[in-house]
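Data card: per-record layout.
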Amino acid sequence: MKVIGHFQGVLGQIAIWESETSGDRLYREGEIFQSQSSPSGESRFPYVQMVRRFLEPTKNILLLGCGGGNLATMLVRSGKRVVVVDCNPTSFEIAQNYFGMPKEIPCVTADFREFLLETTETFDGIGIDVGGPGFCYEEQFDAATCRSIVDRLNPGGRTIINMLVATDFDSAPDKIGMRLSTDMTRGWILDQPGELNRNVLIATLPKVRGPANKRHMSELRQLGPLWDLRRPRPPLPTAPSPSTYPVVRDGRNNPQSRSGRICPQQAS
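The structure for this 268-residue chain is written out next.
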């Protein structure tokens, strides 16, 4: 591996690495791997491929979080209209100059929550992949923000969020999934039980397409052999004792995900 670029990012020093054997490129900010792609700009992260497949039926897509721009690149190549929002303008420069993101993709520098409140545009699909040191998903995706996400969807629209969880007892995915579920939308969670510091996908689809949605989500799950599909569930009434913690399948940190602060879980 060789370093081919250095930048100062919002969350720390950014380094762009390139494999001298495969030509793959990696985007690392501080201790976080934001992206890894093939020389053609195809993401190497399984969860990104799952998000791409989830958004395939839509035409007009909002992406909150840029990283290396691999998801935006893949969607535009398949004929989608995409708008990308990120609080770090350096991400757009890196995505365009090092990862091949087309420069004609509209890029907006803004906090994703402020953008959701201020924009009047609506979308068929919304993909969200944000995070980093000090980022707490449960706080950032509070009830008001989840309402803003739903409000920006066209009728029949869909949304999907990638987040990081620490253990099986992190209730944030369920809380966020329930906040996104409305009279018109139904939440789903794609999880990897037993893994530490793992990616979890929270998705919503229109209720009117119930049976078709279940088939679609089941097909999505097949892209990742260790992923399970379930519905959001209420949090445990009390915090479990350490003796009841689950057996962990793989205790290694997942280098494929954007890391964030895990909020202390409160009994509820």
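Known properties of this structure: The longest strand covers residues 153-165. The chain is about 25% helix and 30% strand.

See the next section for split statistics.
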